[in-house]
Amino acid sequence: MWGLGKKRSKVGQFIDKRGFTQEDLIRAAKISRSTASRICSDPDYSPTATTIKKVMIAIRQLDQNARVDDFFDM
């Protein structure tokens, strides 16, 4: 699903390019809708380490070589 011209974070851009939706991310990472929304749209959002781990597990289903620092400033 493509955004409506809204700014996207690195995670948001990644899932958009692969045809993965925020709903897919919510289910795969087992995170809340509001957390997924912030992770996908706010490049300055700093999720907890637990949330980053969950999101990276979901992302690695699409790209096994994905690294945390590709998406989050640590």
UniProtKB/TrEMBL annotation:
It holds the Pfam family HTH_3. It comes from the Bacteria. One of its GO terms (molecular function) is DNA binding. This is Helix-turn-helix domain-containing protein. It comes from Metabacillus sediminilitoris.
